[in-house]
């Protein structure tokens, strides 16, 4: 019987050493996990409740001081500060979208103006008889001087299109 007691005591001692090597941590869903293997690498150190060489988590223990890596003057932003930052980013994004839309409209207008100037230049070059309307709504045809003035203006517009 003495040998049985020694064997039983040895087995209990071996089993208790395995229990010491247990890991306890809280996963991403908030569920407490127990294992003989270390937690996944994505689990932060503060959620590992027990590990070999680390004392068991005591919820009644006083909180530890914050790490020294964080400057004493820096503090976590308040909810109001975070809200202000969010509103600033939101406003900047809206302004950028408005600028982009205005720029797109300007490019479209300039493309339309350039297209109209090309058509005018083509009509002038082909010798098409051009007319205009005066303030009374009466049609008058352009003479050579007026055609030359229109050609110069059209060329100026086309120079900006290229």
Write the layout of secondary structure elements.
Blueprint: H1 2-20, E1 23-26, E2 32-35, E3 48-50, H2 79-126, E4 131-133, E5 139-141, H3 144-161
Antiparallel strand pairs: 1-2, 1-3, 4-5
Helix pairs in contact: 2-3
Keywords: Signal
Protein name: DUF4124 domain-containing protein
Domain DUF4124: 10-56
Largest sheet: 3 strands, antiparallel
Structural class: mainly alpha
| Helix count from the secondary structure assignment | 3
Number of DSSP strands? 5
General form: rod-shaped
Strand content: 5-15%
* Portion of residues within helices: 40-55%
Topology as a string of helices (H) and strands (E): HEEEHEEH
Low-confidence stretches: none
Signal peptide: 1-21
Keywords: Signal
InterPro entries: DUF4124 (IPR025392)
Region (Disordered): 32-162
What report would you give on this structure?
It is built from three helices and five strands. The termini are far apart. Helix 2 packs antiparallel against helix 3. The strands form two sheets. It has a three-stranded antiparallel β-sheet, with no helix packed on it. Strands 4-5 form a two-stranded antiparallel sheet. The protein is mainly α and 162 residues long. The mean pLDDT is 83.
Can you summarize this structure?
The protein has 162 residues and is mainly alpha-helical.
């Amino acid at each position: 019987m003495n040998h049985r007691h020694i064997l039983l005591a040895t087995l209990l001692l071996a089993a208790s050493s395995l229990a010491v090597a247990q890991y306890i941590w809280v996963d991403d869903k908030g569920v407490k996990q127990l294992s003989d293997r270390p937690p996944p690498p994505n689990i932060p150190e503060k959620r590992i409740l027990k590990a070999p060489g680390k004392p068991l988590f005591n919820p009644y223990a006083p909180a530890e001081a914050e790490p020294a890596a964080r400057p004493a003057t820096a503090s976590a932003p308040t909810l109001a500060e975070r809200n202000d930052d969010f509103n600033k980013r939101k406003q900047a994004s809206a302004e950028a979208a408005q600028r982009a839309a205005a720029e797109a409209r300007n490019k479209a207008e300039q493309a339309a103006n350039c297209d109209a100037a090309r058509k005018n230049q083509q009509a002038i070059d082909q010798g098409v008889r051009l007319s205009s309307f005066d303030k009374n709504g009466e049609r008058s045809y352009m003479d050579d001087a007026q055609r030359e003035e229109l050609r110069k203006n059209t060329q100026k517009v086309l120079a900006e299109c290229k």
